[in-house]
Amino acid sequence: MCSASYFGFANEVNMQKTRLAILDMYDNEPNQGMRAIKQIVGRFEGHLDWQLFNVRAEAEVPGMDFDIYISTGGPGSPHDGNGHWDAKYFDWMETVWNWNQMPGNPKKHVFFICHSFQMACIHFKIGQVTRRRSKSFGTFPVHKTDMGVADPLFDGLPNPFYIADFREWQVVQPDEAQLEELGAEILCLEKIRPYVPLERAIMAIRFSDEIFGTQFHPEADPEGMLQHFMDPERRRVIIEEHSEAKYYEMIEHLRDADKIELTHNIILPLFLSRAIRAARRQEMAMV
Q: In angstroms, how far is the first alpha carbon of the chain from the final one?
């Protein structure tokens, strides 16, 4: 496990804490994602003040008085909203984007996960967000693009690397002109499936220098997933829906330190460490 000291924060003192907003997109459904995100954020205790916003259930969105934002995964279709929480969420997204375009503004750093990633792709018109032929469930390799190989948030990950992937929706048919206009880059594609005549979904995008998103769950940790999937009833359902072979393959991947554990220890911690440093540089420049 990588602590804040691993990223070089141990000797920094008398610094104002960086402010983090976590946008909870789980609509009050039980989940492992929030626990795992809080566990990673806890590694930076002493360097972050954080606040939780219940977006879908309470229509809560943060203001611009935060330095960093993490928007979580969640259940259901990214196209479904009630015209209230989703409108506020898209307004927040546009406000952050416009804020970052204004010269002199201290940059806001954002990480979109799974459901939030799909909604960001809808908002920024990145590509088509469609329902998969069948649900993706388990641990899989994803392949970096040339830009993904060079991206600092993947530093230390092999190509391909393993991810936790649980989704019924996907982002496909990228709009190259829109990507170029935004300055966005596709960083990862789903696993190569030569026997399946379907387009490979987009698995990670850098929307801008400060805004990043993944279709998969970088927060997923082996311990929590093992505890979750070893439950007898969940085990039975998984085997019925996805096969016994798939179940045991996933369990084996969770026990391999070079797979999900490696991804868990690199992507979100690197995002937070880089964002904290950037916020502190901006704070010092304004003094």
A: 35
